[in-house]
Amino acid sequence: MIYPIVAYGNPILKKEAEEITEGTDLSALINDMYATMDHANGVGLAAPQINQSVRLFVIDSSLMLDENDEEKGIRRAFINPIILDEYGDDYGFEEGCLSIPEVRAEIIRPDKLTIEYFDENWNLKEEEFSGMTARVIQHEYDHLEGILFVDYLKGLKKRLIQSKLIDVSKGKISTDYRMIYPLR
Ligand code: NI
Questions:
Q1: Strands (DSSP E) along the chain, which ranges?
Q2: Residue 24 belongs to some domain of the structure
Q3: Rounded-to-10 torsion of CA 18, 37, 114, 70
Q4: What's the pLDDT tens digit per position in 5-58?
Q5: CATH number for 68
Q6: What is the mean pLDDT of the chain?
């Protein structure tokens, strides 16, 4: 099943998501999240974006890399993740979000992280990620905390996208996937 994606302005995107009870069968939800992400050509999708305020996201960072890249992407689900540490060099990368179509902005984040999470079989993992995979994880993890990439923009950069954000909330945009607009 492909879910509609919640657009910017919906309060669920600003809420801290709830932890999921260990052992809960999430296989159908995770499959649907992969299908929804793929349908929208996304590299990541967090549960709040399909109107479910729980701590789960899926990513496919391989789409951001090609065979010439040294880094290999991953396609994976993260349940109840905790970023334990972020380190390495800060660098800027232009991010976008399926909930905020037509808006992109350079965001600065550290290039490495260590994360603890449950995989889809409820095995507890602790792993280090870097590069594009780390970047996608940081963006999706923020969704579980109620943080959007545009929240990092300040001053002029923030003002320049303000009217575009209102357009997104009103559905005055065109996307190839279905969305839920809070102001329409
Ligand atoms: Ni996003």
A1: 5-6, 44-46, 56-60, 75-95, 105-118, 124-130, 179-180
A2: yes
A3: 180
A4: 999 999 999 999 999 999 999 999 999 999 999 999 999 999 999 999 999 999
A5: 3.90.45.10
A6: 96
C-alpha–C-alpha distance, residues 151 and 130, integer Å: 23
Q: How far is the CA of 63 from the CAs of 42, 89, 100, 109, in angstroms? A: 9, 23, 19, 20
In a domain, 184, yes or no: no
**Residues making up the binding site for Fe cation:** 97, 139, 143
Residue numbering of the annotated binding site:
97, 139, 143
- Gap from CA of 143 to ligand 1 centroid (Å): 7
CA 46 – ligand 1 centroid, Å: 7
- SS3 call for 136: helix
Number of domains present in the structure of the chain = 1
Q: pTM above the 0.85 mark?
A: yes
Does residue 45 lie within any of the structural domains? yes
Would you call 140 a catalytic residue per the annotation?
Answer: yes
Nearest to 120 by CA among 30, 52, 18: 30
The neighbouring-strand residues paired with 117 are 125
The residues of the chain scoring below 70 in pLDDT are none
Residue 55 within a domain: yes
Cα 96 to averaged position of ligand 1 atoms, centre (Å): 7
